[in-house]
């Protein structure tokens, strides 16, 4: 599935396309090595190991991997997933069609320019295209204050800290009704 929208606020087209292994593995691997990424993703690993990780992720049918683009320039990595069957499911009272999201801005040329919020807003809007989904969840690393701020501005509310296998996260929820009130013109 592909999603795109012209965003008046930033004057650019935001789009998401599915990750394709051969086309994207080297680019995503290079992003995982960036100083602003590796402390939170823990995937600053050799390419051969990262290839194994990405293949496994692409074959996991409970989530979909995307490359986020601005004006067709790949600059971010996204994981949209179903909470059901995920480790997150046991951390709160999950509904059957809750979704979750992970993201990173990989290309450093796009950092600090106000793109995270418009991108996150469009990914959440994309996830809410499934009429069964009433909540989109996030669990950013509790140390990642910048992303927590962006999630909050998008309409996510803090639930509390949670212990996950690879981090202490801040569980956050964005409910459809709140999102639509905030972002429907």
From TrEMBL:
The alphabetical list of record keywords is: Antibiotic resistance, Transferase
* BP-aspect Gene Ontology terms: response to antibiotic; siderophore biosynthetic process
> Per its UniProt record, what Gene3D superfamilies does this chain match?
3.40.630.30
Pfam families named in the record: Acetyltransf_8
Locate the transmembrane regions by residue number.
Answer: none
Isomerase among keywords? no
Respond yes or no to whether keyword Transferase is given for this record: yes
Q: Which PROSITE patterns match?
A: GNAT (PS51186)
Q: MF terms per GO, please?
A: N-acyltransferase activity
Pathway stated in the Swiss-Prot or TrEMBL entry: Siderophore biosynthesis
**Domain of life of the organism in this record?**
Bacteria
N-acetyltransferase domain sequence ranges = 14-177
Q: Explain the purpose of this protein.
A: Acyltransferase required for the direct transfer of medium- to long-chain fatty acyl moieties from a carrier protein (MbtL) on to the epsilon-amino group of lysine residue in the mycobactin core.
Instruction: State the protein's name.
Output: Lysine N-acyltransferase MbtK
Annotated source species: [Bacillus] enclensis
């Amino acid at each position: 599935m592909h999603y795109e929208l012209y965003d008046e606020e930033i004057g650019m087209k935001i789009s998401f396309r599915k990750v394709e292994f051969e086309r994207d593995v080297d680019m995503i691997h290079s992003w995982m090595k960036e100083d602003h990424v590796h402390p939170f993703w823990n995937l600053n690993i050799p390419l051969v190991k990262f290839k194994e990780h990405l293949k496994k992720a692409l074959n996991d049918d409970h989530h979909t991997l995307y490359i986020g683009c601005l004006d067709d320039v790949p600059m971010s990595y996204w994981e949209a997933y179903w909470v059901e069957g995920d480790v997150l499911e046991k951390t709160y009272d999950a509904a059957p069609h809750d979704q979750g999201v992970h993201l990173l801005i990989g290309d450093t040329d796009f950092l600090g320019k106000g793109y995270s919020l418009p991108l996150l807003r469009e990914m959440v809007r994309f996830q809410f295209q499934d009429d069964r989904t009433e909540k989109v969840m996030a669990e950013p690393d509790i140390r990642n204050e910048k992303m927590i701020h962006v999630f909050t501005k998008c309409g996510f509310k803090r639930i509390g800290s949670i212990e996950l296998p690879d981090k202490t996260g801040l569980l956050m929820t964005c409910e459809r009704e709140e999102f639509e009130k905030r972002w429907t013109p």
